[in-house]
Amino acid sequence: MRITTLIPLALAGLTALAAPSVAQSGQFSPVVVVNDSAVTRYELDQRVQFLTMLRAPGDPVAEAEKGLIEDRLRIAAAKAAGITINDQQIAAGMAEFAGRANLDTEQFLQAIGQGGVAPETFRDFVAAGLAWREAVRARFLPKVAISEAEIDRALSVPAQRGAGPRVNLSEILIPTSGGTAMEKRDFAEELAKSIGSEAAFAAAARQHSAAPSRLNGGQVGWIPVTNLPPQVRQVIAGMGNGQVSPPINLGNAIAIVRLRGIEQGGEISAGNLTVDYAQVLLPGGRSPETLAESERIRGEVDTCDDLYRVFSGAPAGTVRRETRALAQVPADIAGELARLDDNEVSTALTSGGGLVFLMLCRRSATLAAGPAPSAADLAAPAADGVPAIDPTLGFGQGPNRAQVREELTNQRLAALADGWLAELRANAIIRTP
After folding, report:
1. What CATH number does the domain containing 242 carry?
2. C-alpha distances in angstroms, 112 versus 14, 19, 99, 104, 412?
3. Using N-to-C axis directions, what is the helix angle for 119-140 and 41-53, rounded to 10°?
4. Which of 28, 117, 153, 363 is deepest in the core (most CB within 10 A)?
5. Is 119:388 a contact under the CB 8 Å cutoff?
6. 136 and 184 co-located in one domain
7. At 41, which CATH number?
8. In this structure, is residue 90 part of a structural domain?
9. What is the pLDDT of residue 377?
10. Can you give the residue range of the structural domain that contains 65?
11. Which H or E element spans position 150?
């Protein structure tokens, strides 16, 4: 079981399980040997109890034995590749895992300890997952290339990006850099413990968040779960209404979110659609010359970005490109866009004596339903002690292309990892004493 794809934790209502006695006869006898590495009865019992507490699907004994065998193979593969995991990485991995249950590491250890699971069992589980993740990335990442077309498809309405369950969130985004990451993490952990009420969260967002949503007290509004980063989805899966998450590491920032509501959602509705479109006004109306020019331009552009090349020598503003909620688009333009697929062109409209060359760049459902701050709000200077707004931060605008690339890369790596693990298992000598 990879640590990056574990089920959401559900630790509420834990059932007390009897802890095994390490002094009990046979606890350290091997139950299975993987190549030259033995899995003991104690390890198997601990893993069974751990999986039972996580409410993992399947038979806990069979899944525990399978997981421990695969952990031995993963660790051996990482060791052969020269990969080692240090204590700091393991601590961060334990904190990340515990955060999916809306707990810090100590709280998580206390919770599993009530069921007799030792801290070392959790640590070994995390360490094996981290070592395997690094081994997989070292072996396969140079071979994984995600194309721009694949990103476009992943963000598209046909791919159902934006369908399914939706959550109403408030957010705090705290930027980090290499020199401040640990300091910001410590600050975020203390902050998350002190902002349980909606008013306290909103006040903290206005003071500490660098996302544009801070102007609205951190409120993002309703957003499809598929538009959130995977690490945020995992944490939200274990939260209830009104709860505040522990800090979530996003790489360039630390996020704290407050869950304000959840609904099942479903198919993408017209009210959730956003269109990115471009238009150029060609003089001459529907004259034969203008229609011929529009056909020439149509033959030179494959995407909306190509319009900037075609009109590179034209006055600024010749290419007008906008991203709007479909309901905010003028009716005549919206009607034409409804007939187009991504990167298709319409020349059916005229305006002010000119021919409108209209191109749909992308139809998506990635934006949140909350209010968007104005350009003036974003440009306003920040108060003392308040970070400058970074318009690239925040979940309301949906995933950016870099995030989707990472998501697709991780999906590709997961598939390759499954194949490698199957190969390692097929070539291993696995025996029961």
Report:
1. 3.10.50.40
2. 9, 11, 14, 12, 33
3. 90
4. 117
5. no
6. no
7. 1.10.4030.10
8. yes
9. 61
10. 3-143+424-431
11. helix 148-154
